[in-house]
Automatic annotation (TrEMBL):
InterPro entries: CAT-like_dom_sf, Plant_Fungal_Acyltransferase. This is Transferase family-domain-containing protein. GO terms for molecular function: acyltransferase activity, transferring groups other than amino-acyl groups. The keyword DNA-binding does not apply. Keywords: Transferase. Signal peptide: none annotated. The keyword Transferase applies. The lineage of its organism: Eukaryota, Fungi, Fungi incertae sedis, Mucoromycota, Glomeromycotina.
């Protein structure tokens, strides 16, 4: 297991924890469903490791045709994307964003295990990530005081490398990440079954397959102004 130590004498932990970040359009919380060993990150870190072990270095693959559009219409709906036109000079300026509040939470191994037991129910189909996402989604939605009849969205970044057929080459240089979303009424989210919520999250992630990924590429390709494409939960 390689251990990477990075030193930055000009930045302190206190600076990172200060709550004076500039407001920006970011999600309320992020719990990714993808490994750290990913494309742009893993290859530069793997090369020194292979050199130290005196193992052959596999050159990176830059074949962008692996994610080329097919030229056909999309075969799936893509609620994870939204076309968002920026305001023109003649239109009304966008309202300023409200101040953002940040908080760091630490969930130890024991608490994560308890959380998994609560959200797993009678089945073991959900992962620890599913349980954590479900729990955070419920708590954040409840804290925001959203009306019970409103619809909310939870988005998941998924690693598409092993979901494509054939699989991506392990030395592909770049990312293959697709966002998928789950929509739900606030009343169902807060008052519904906890195991069912985690299971719905797992099903939404499992729907990201080769067909879905290829369809999303075709959907993006067909948009005349790609600068208007935004992730649905950021628009």
């Amino acid at each position: 297991i390689p251990f990477i130590i990075a030193e930055s004498p000009d930045i302190t932990i206190q600076q990172l924890e200060e709550k004076n970040w500039q407001p920006s359009s970011i999600p309320d919380h992020l719990v990714p469903d993808l490994p750290v060993t990913h494309g742009l990150i893993s290859l530069p870190l793997d090369v020194p490791l292979l050199m130290a072990r005196q193992e052959p270095i596999i050159p990176p693959v830059h074949d962008r045709s692996l994610l080329k559009a097919s030229g056909n219409p999309p075969t799936h709906e893509h609620p994870e994307f939204k076309l968002f036109k920026l305001p023109t000079e003649a239109s009304q300026a966008m309202p300023p964003m409200p101040p953002m509040i940040t908080k760091l939470f630490h969930i130890n191994r024991d608490n994560l295990k308890k959380l998994c037991n609560v959200y797993s129910g009678e089945h073991n189909l959900v992962s620890a990530n599913d349980a954590l996402v479900a729990h955070l989604w419920r708590l954040v939605t409840r804290a925001r005081g959203i009306p019970l009849d409103a619809e909310v969205i939870c988005a998941f970044p998924c690693d598409g490398r092993k979901r494509l057929k054939p699989f991506f080459p392990p030395n592909y240089f770049g990312n293959c990440i697709l966002n998928t979303v789950l929509k739900m009424l606030v009343s169902e989210l807060i008052n519904g079954s906890q195991p069912n919520l985690a299971l719905q999250i797992r099903k939404a992630i499992d729907k990201v397959n080769d067909s879905k990924i290829r369809s999303s590429i075709d959907w993006i390709e067909q948009q005349p102004n790609k600068s208007e494409i935004k992730l649905n939960y950021l628009a």
